[in-house]
Amino acid sequence: DFFNRTILRRAADVIVLDRFMGERVNRKVDVSAKTSTMPPWPHESDTADVPHDQNPFRKAHGLDGKFVVMYSGNHSPANPISTILDAADRLADVPNLVFMFIGGGGAKKEVDDRIARGARNIRSLPYQPLSQTKYSLSAADVHVVSIGDAVVGIVHPCKVYGAMAMSRPILLLGPTPCHVSDLIEQHRIGWHLAHGDTDAAVAALRTMLAADPAELHAMGRRAAQAISTSLSKHALMTRFCDVLERGVP
Hints:
Elements: H1 2-10, E1 14-16, H2 19-28, E2 35-37, H3 56-60, E3 67-72, H4 82-90, E4 97-102, H5 108-116, E5 122-125, H6 133-138, E6 142-146, H7 159-165, E7 170-173, H8 179-187, E8 190-193, H9 198-210, H10 213-228, H11 233-246
Parallel strand pairs: 1-2, 3-4, 3-6, 4-5, 6-7, 7-8
Helix pairs in contact: 4-9, 7-10
């Protein structure tokens, strides 16, 4: 904390990734007068939406005709997924529902343990090459984003931007409020559940399965629209460069 406060006081400008991070930083030392808030931008060149019927990833993994709920990225204690795994257990009798977990990390063992115990509706895959992520991310119908209750303002859930760029709705597991809950509320792009509320998770997943596909597509379009405008690489790099240029003599 001493070194953090020293650096913050000496900095000409401070950039934080979301408003919660800004609040946390300002509790250390008041730098509000020189703080800018902007998230990271997605890999737009690698996030083209691939239709399900043209997606080789879905074909390769037997996902044709399936409704895919996907978590893609780092599996860590900062991103708890137990609630969605418990919901998968409760929905094991739904034949067209698949839960796919892509990536790695210490918490991936929880996924693999469920599969080892016989879960047939859960799939586990390693990280995919960047050149293939447009296929893997597009294979989902809904993307799961998780943020731990204790790490709001410390960990920024940047995986949400890739999912939004793919025109997919978001299922958030996390506290209220947090950065992703702000995005969901502002753009009307998904559902928000508390950690541990398995009943609500099951109900939300049944709602998704029963929803008119046009409704899900509309959520996805609104998500992609946000990425292409205020959250685009061009817009955010411009803002970032404006901050840098302020500090140039």
